[in-house]
Write a structure and sequence with these properties.
Length: 122
């Protein structure tokens, strides 16, 4: 595995754990879909900072360009995440943490491709 791949997994793992922690702390007080969105919002900043500083530190874009592009990338990933999450949670009646975990994994590949080849383009 190359350096970019290692850091992408490490940063993505940290962001996913942040997302899941926020979800776990808020799901009893909010609809699961809203708790998922709140987890995403907090994890977004962990993810952006880590990817900009570690995964794609040789990016050929300015911080502002990367931020805007990563926001679009992350929102696309969240749309996939929320769609999979709702399908598993409401449609197939999975437990919420299991549905969230699978949704996060499912969206990770999409996020990597868009991050690597567009948001932090070299």
């Amino acid at each position: 595995m190359n350096r970019t791949g290692f850091w992408f997994l490490a940063v993505g793992g940290a962001a996913a754990l942040t997302h899941m922690a926020v979800f776990a702390l808020t799901q009893q007080r909010l609809w699961p879909e809203v708790a998922n969105a709140l987890g995403f919002a907090v994890a977004f900043f962990v993810s952006f900072a880590g990817h900009r500083l570690l995964s794609f530190q040789d990016a050929g874009t300015t911080v502002k360009q990367s931020f805007v592009r990563f926001a679009v990338t992350a929102l696309a990933g969240f749309a996939t995440n929320e769609g999979v999450f709702v399908l598993l949670l409401r449609g197939l009646e999975w437990p919420s943490m299991g549905a969230l975990f699978v949704a996060l994994v499912f969206a990770a590949g999409q996020t990597f491709v868009l991050s690597r080849f567009w948001a932090f383009r070299r």
